[in-house]
Structures are given as structure tokens and as C-alpha cells.
Amino acid sequence: LTRGMVSTIFREIPAYSAQFYVYEGLSRALRGPNSMLNDSVAVLIAGGLGGVACWVASYPFDVIKSNIQADLKGVQWRSTGYFCDGGMIQCARHLYLRNGFRGFWIGILPCLIGVLPGNAALFFTYTVVMEYLTKHQS
User: What is the pLDDT of residues 29-49, one digit of tens each?
Assistant: First the structure.
């Protein structure tokens, strides 16, 4: 049940840090007073690129996590004796030796193609709902 938990935590921290950093930075820059973009378009662009940043920052950890979780018998990836890493270091070493640096990025393109419109819609919806609720607060 908890296999891959350590690598999931290592994935989530940079993922959402990058997502919200990029979203907030781009959203503020694109929605500024001198912007030629409509606010809705700016939020869609910032949200989509925030999602891309999320996955680019976390994809290698996601590949490691998926490999650990795919070890159905739970015997291939063991924690090192140095600290409880859930097999991350051993799995990463194996991936690198088998495929080089490229092994951590296999499959990222379809992921990014899907995340761009998904996160654009997510942040757009969030922004519209928050603006509506703020305007109609009693």
C-alpha cells in the first residue's frame, strides 16, 4: 500500500512548487496594467505553462516512483543502508545504467501534451469561481 511513498513525496514538492511559482509569476506578468492580453487568455496561458513546469520539475521522480510501484513482488528495489529511501536510489541507478539520462524522460511528451490544456482549464475555472465568489460575497 505504501510502496513508492518516499518517491511520491520527492515528486510532489518540486512539482507543485514549480507549478504555482510559474502560474503566479506568469499570471501577474500577463495580467498587468500594460498587458495586451485579455485576463482570461492570460490565465489560460499561465495555467497551462504552470502545469508544464509541474511535470518538467517532477517527471524523473515520477518515473522512479512508477518503476518502484510496478515491482509487484516488492523485491527488486530495496532501501539503501544509508537512509530510508524506499528503493529510490537503487531504482534511479538502475534506470540510469540501463537507459542513461534519457531513461528518466521517456514518455514526457504525451504527458505534457495532455497537461497543457488540462491545467489551463483548471486554473481558468478556479480563477472564474474565485472572482465570482469574491464579487457575490454577502
Answer: 998 888 888 989 999 999 999
Q: How many residues does the chain have?
A: 138
**Helix, strand, or coil (residue 75):** coil
- C-alpha 69/C-alpha 97 separation (Å) is 19
- What's the burial of 94, exposed, middle or buried (CB within 10 Å: 0-12/13-18/19+)? middle
Q: Report how far residue 37's alpha carbon sits from residue 34's, in angstroms, rounded to the nearest whole number.
A: 9
42 close to 128: Cβ distance less than 8 angstroms: no
Structural contact between residues 54 and 19, judged by C-beta atoms closer than 8 angstroms: yes
Q: What is the pLDDT of residues 64-118, one digit of tens each?
A: 989 888 876 665 666 555 556 678 888 898 899 999 999 999 999 999 999 999 9
As given in the structure block, the three cell numbers for residue 71 are 515491482
